[in-house]
Design goal:
- The complex is a heterodimer of chains A (about 300) and B (about 210).
- With about 300 residues, chain A is of the alpha/beta class.
- Chain A contains ten helices and six strands, in the order αααααβαβαβαβββαα.
- In chain A, strands 1-6-5-3-4-2 form a six-stranded mixed sheet, sandwiched between helices.
- In chain A, helix 1 crosses helix 2.
- The longest helix of chain A has 28 residues.
- Chain B has about 210 residues and is mostly helical.
- Chain B has two domains: about 35 residues; about 170 residues, Ferritin, core subunit, four-helix bundle (Ferritin), CATH 1.20.1260.10.
- Chain B has seven helices and no strands.
- The model of chain B has no long low-confidence stretch (mean pLDDT about 90).
- The chains are: A alpha/beta (about 300), B mainly alpha (about 210).
- The interface between A and B is medium-sized, with 37 and 33 residues.
């Protein structure tokens, strides 16, 4: 049959029978289908159809009439039969709009996740070039630096000073301390609110376990203020709160290697600090340690009973 | 470039590629999506850690200071197994990249439960108060055994309640598995504790 012959010659040229058949058939099919749909469209459209549509369908009616007598060869040159279609602005805008919205949503989601991984601004961080205790320790164990190269070597010091000498007391470079060598007992930090000062060495051990220690100056914060602060701590595991002698500022909140001080007990950064640093995965110097079962007394209590 | 728009086949091809890319992106995000910071799953995992921490504290004290062998054995069991579960919950939270702490216990369980918790001083169902813990830690021997059993039975009932709550609210595989295990194990534990307690009490009365 005629079509078969055409196929043969086409496949010689194209090298692929299937493909050749398809390309042969398609342009004609598309043309005829195009013609049919155009006709259907113009019939289906209301009499007040746009003149362009009528004109273009008229043009379409005319052209294929001349074309159908032709063989397949000219039909493959799409340009020759090209009908001027109006740019589908509707489709363009729709796709652009959808694309922009989708990209926007993805970008927003990525931003939120990234933002949550950033520490709150304005925190004093004693790690120097490193982000947290895990990074600092990794740099040392990789041999990149030694402990003494750190701005504040105490951020990687975790010795129990009272293991050899039970009367030894750790000394700290900053006040209140935010890490360093400490006593062998931690201070119970299960949302524990202490009404009198506690030992630095016990509190620092709690920081090592991933707790956040909120200290306040009893001379600068009144009873109501203390209650407000206490409500942030009570019932929240891995936190503790105590007054700090001569603090000089209303609130000083500590986690291992970081500290934030503020005059305002309602400072939202206090909550941000708590949210970010409690059991922070990268900043817990002694991971998986508990806050229960530690020293539950204040210095005064211990002295009274001791 | 303007001729592009005149070829439906090409337009369709481009949209198909775009849609495929969008689908792949959505699939990737959905596949790596884990419970979020405010999710029921994260809230449950955090609260179970805190709840377990208290049970471990009680059990450690009982193991060291109680006298009934069966009771101290249960205490050993609870201290070790619940510590392991604390680790499990903690690692989920890290894996999900969510915060490990929130100021609102039981918020995940819905308004009603969050308020109950607040009025109980931030305690979850079944938890002992600070006063109860302090009292417990003044006891030794049989007295400790008895108070331990009572505190722990209440603690387990609370734990079972929390697990049942989460089963209604989540179908996350990890959570459902842990909650169902909690219910099974702790209900069995409650029976054991009650049985041993009854033995001790009747022995005391003799």
């Amino acid at each position: 049959m005629a079509s078969k012959k055409q196929t043969a010659s086409k496949s010689a040229g194209k090298g692929s029978g299937k493909g050749a058949v398809k390309s042969d058939d398609k342009p004609e099919d598309v043309k005829t289908e195009g013609k049919q749909t155009e006709d259907a469209k113009s019939e289906a459209k209301k009499p007040e159809a746009k003149s362009t549509k009528a004109a273009s369908s008229a043009r379409k009616d005319r052209k294929p009439a001349g074309k159908s007598s032709a063989t397949t060869a000219p039909a493959r040159k799409g340009r020759a039969v090209q009908v001027k279609q109006p740019k589908p602005w509707g489709m363009i805008w729709t796709f652009t709009g959808v694309g922009v919205v989708a990209l926007g949503l993805i970008a927003a989601a990525m931003f939120v996740v990234w933002d949550r991984s950033q520490p709150p601004e304005g925190i004093t961080d004693f790690y120097g070039d490193y982000a947290n205790v895990t990074e600092a320790k990794a740099a040392i164990s990789d041999g990149e630096i030694t402990e003494d190269d750190l701005d504040n070597p105490w951020v990687v010091q975790q010795t129990h000073v009272d293991s050899e000498d039970p009367t030894a007391v750790p000394e700290y470079e900053i006040s209140p301390p935010a890490g360093g060598n400490h006593l062998s007992q931690w201070q119970t930090c299960t949302g524990s609110v202490y009404d009198a000062p506690i030992l630095d060495g016990n509190a620092v051990h709690s920081l090592e376990h991933g707790a956040v220690w909120l200290t306040y100056d009893a001379a600068l914060v009144d009873g109501e203020g203390v209650s407000t602060l206490a409500s942030k701590i009570e019932g929240r595991d891995y936190t503790l709160m105590s007054p700090y002698q001569d603090l000089g500022v209303a609130v000083s909140i500590q986690a291992w290697g970081v500290q934030y001080q503020t005059k305002d007990i309602n400072d939202p950064k206090i909550d941000e600090f708590l949210d970010f640093y409690i059991q922070n995965a990268d900043n817990t110097a002694e991971a998986n340690a508990t806050c229960t079962g530690g020293v539950a007394t204040t210095i005064a209590d211990a002295a009274a009973t001791g | 470039m303007s001729r592009l728009w005149r070829r439906p086949a090409l337009l369709i091809a481009i949209s198909a590629v775009l849609m495929l890319a969008a689908g792949a992106a959505i699939g990737y995000v959905a596949g790596t999506a884990a419970p979020g910071d405010d999710s029921v799953e994260a809230g449950f995992a955090r609260d179970m850690q805190t709840h377990h921490q208290q049970a471990v504290e009680m059990a450690m004290y009982e193991w060291q200071n109680g006298s009934d062998l069966a009771m101290t054995a249960i205490a050993y069991d609870i201290a070790t197994s619940q510590s392991a579960e604390i680790g499990m919950y903690r690692s989920w939270l890290r894996d999900w990249d969510v915060r490990l702490s929130t100021g609102e216990p039981m918020a995940w369980a819905g308004e009603e439960h969050a308020h109950d918790s607040e009025s109980a001083g931030g305690l979850m169902p079944g938890m002992a108060t600070d006063e109860q813990m302090a009292e417990f830690k003044t006891l030794t021997g049989t007295d400790a055994d008895i108070m331990f059993a009572n505190l722990m039975i209440d603690h387990h009932i609370g734990g079972v309640d929390m697990a049942k709550l989460v089963l209604d609210l989540s179908d996350n595989d990890l959570i459902v598995d842990a909650a169902q295990r909690t219910i099974t194990v702790q209900q069995a534990d409650i029976e054991n504790l009650q049985g041993h307690l009854d033995n001790i009490l009747s022995a005391v009365q003799e």
